Structure formats: structure tokens, C-alpha cells
């Protein structure tokens, strides 16, 4: 999960797998690729000694009220990629500076000098879009999004994806955005509330809060993104 790079350089050939690499000031890398996270999560949840019974049964950590598995006594599925990383990530605060290197599905690299909270949005999106039983239905909305991009750019891509999925039908788009924002607002707020019970620092807390902010930005501005994208296209 961690690796020391004594050169301190960002060598592009070091980032082959899809996912996130966070490079710290001392050149240590947190390797948060999709493959690595799934491996660590699988090992963590398979070990009965990792999570005490009293934690597993804590009501605050159970599934959301709108989860299709709600009522079954078990931890929220969205915590599966988060809890295994707490031992490392919880040593950092939100505004610790990092270099975030994100490798997308096409192998393209996106590099950003940013904060720990902003970089960790990738893990939060995995939590909400691939592990959360409700969030999975929205994965298409996030197609091609870049987790380390700015909130406005990220929300812009979200809107354009939804616009394409619903063939530009404004009524369907508005209904989809409203439902999506309601569900994701509740899901992110619930994750923040859960993590407040177990986190020492605020890096993961504010990473989820950042995802929530982007969702709200999408809900507030809506058609503005489409108009702006068309304007930029016409200027090319």
C-alpha cells in the first residue's frame, strides 16, 4: 500500500494500474489503485479479528434506510474500501499537501498538486459507486470523470453524462438529477457521520464532504453546464 521513491520525481512509467497514487512530501507513495484497494479490502474483511463484534453491531455503522439490504445486521457496504485504509490515511489531515496521480481506464495520467482530502475523493467514489448497494445504479453518471479534477469540471462531466443517458430530455434529466442528488446527499452525510465515530483526523471526512459539495453543485446549476460546454466547443 505504501512505497518509498527515493528520487522524489514523478516518473510516468511508475503509474501503470488504473487508480490513484498519492505522493507525499517525503516521496512516500500511497498506492490506491482499484486492484490494490480491492485486494486489501478483501483480506481485511476476511479476517474476523480486524473488526470487533461491538463495532460490527453498532447501529450507527449499519446500512442506510434506503439500502436494499437494510435490516440485515451488518456494516454499511460503503465502508468496505474505507476501513482497511484508516490505519494509514487517518494519520493525515485534510490540508496535507500531496501530489495526486490518477491513471484512468485508458491509461492516461492526470497529475494534480492538491490536498489529501481532495485526492481521497477517488476512494470515496469507489465507496459510493461500487460498494454502496444503492450507489451502484448511478455508476454510468460517473463515466469518464477524473476524481482529481476541480469540482466545477467534475460536476460538468456528471451533467453531460446524464444529459447523454437521457437523450437530452429535460424532464427526465431534471428528475434523474433530483433523485441522484437526494440519494448521494444522504449517502455521503451518513458516511461522514459514521467516520466521525472512528476517525482521529479529518482527511476522509472532508473527502466525503467534497463529494457531497460536487453533487450539490450539479443540482444547483444544472443546464448551465451544457450551455458552457457548447460555448467552449464553438470557440474551438
Strand arrangement within the widest β-sheet reads 1-3-2-4-5
Mean pLDDT: 85
Structural class: alpha+beta
Assembly state (oligomeric): single chain
The span between the termini is: 42 Å
- Strand segment tally: 5
The SSE string, one letter per element, is EEEHHHEEHHHHHH
Q: Major sheet, described briefly? A: 5 strands, antiparallel
Report helical residue fraction.
Answer: 40-55%
- Share of residues in strands: 5-15%
Q: Categorize the overall geometry.
A: globular
Alpha-carbon Rg, integer:
18 Å
> Runs with pLDDT <50, length 5+?
4-8
Helical segment tally? 9
Q: What key phrases describe this protein's structure?
A:
236 residues, alpha+beta, 47% helix
Layout: helices, strands, pairs:
Layout: E1 2-4, E2 19-23, E3 28-33, H1 34-46, H2 53-56, H3 86-89, E4 97-103, E5 109-115, H4 116-119, H5 121-131, H6 151-165, H7 170-196, H8 203-221, H9 223-235
Antiparallel strand pairs: 1-3, 2-3, 2-4, 4-5
Helix pairs in contact: 6-8, 6-9, 7-8
Characterization of this structure:
This protein has 236 residues and is of the alpha+beta class. Helices cover 47% and strands 12% of the residues. The protein has 9 helices and 5 strands. The protein has a 5-stranded antiparallel sheet with strand order 1-3-2-4-5. Helix 6 (151-165) crosses helix 8 (203-221). It is globular. The termini are far apart.
Compact overview of the structure:
This protein is α+β, with helices and mostly antiparallel strands.
Amino acid at each position: 500500500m505504501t512505497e518509498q521513491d527515493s528520487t522524489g520525481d514523478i516518473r510516468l512509467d511508475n503509474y501503470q494500474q488504473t487508480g490513484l497514487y498519492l505522493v507525499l512530501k517525503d516521496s512516500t507513495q500511497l498506492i490506491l489503485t482499484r486492484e490494490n484497494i480491492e485486494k486489501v479490502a478483501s483480506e481485511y474483511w476476511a479476517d474476523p479479528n480486524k473488526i470487533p463484534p461491538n463495532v460490527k453491531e453498532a447501529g450507527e455503522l449499519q446500512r442506510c434506510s434506503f439500502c436494499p439490504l437494510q435490516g440485515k445486521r451488518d456494516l454499511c457496504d460503503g465502508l468496505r474500501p474505507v476501513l482497511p485504509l484508516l490505519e494509514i490515511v487517518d494519520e493525515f489531515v485534510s490540508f496535507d499537501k500531496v501530489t495526486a496521480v490518477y491513471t484512468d481506464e485508458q491509461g492516461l495520467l492526470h497529475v494534480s498538486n492538491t490536498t489529501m482530502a481532495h485526492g481521497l475523493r477517488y476512494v470515496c467514489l469507489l465507496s459510493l459507486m461500487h460498494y454502496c448497494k444503492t450507489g451502484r445504479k448511478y455508476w454510468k453518471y460517473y463515466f469518464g470523470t477524473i476524481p482529481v479534477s476541480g469540482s466545477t469540471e467534475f460536476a460538468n462531466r456528471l451533467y453531460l453524462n446524464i444529459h447523454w443517458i437521457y437523450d437530452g430530455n429535460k424532464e427526465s434529466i431534471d428528475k434523474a438529477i433530483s433523485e441522484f442528488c437526494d440519494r448521494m446527499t444522504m449517502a455521503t452525510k451518513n458516511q461522514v457521520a459514521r467516520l466521525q465515530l472512528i476517525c482521529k483526523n479529518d482527511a476522509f471526512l472532508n473527502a466525503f464532504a467534497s463529494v457531497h459539495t460536487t453533487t450539490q453543485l450539479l443540482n444547483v446549476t444544472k443546464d448551465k453546464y451544457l450551455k458552457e460546454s457548447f460555448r467552449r466547443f464553438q470557440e474551438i
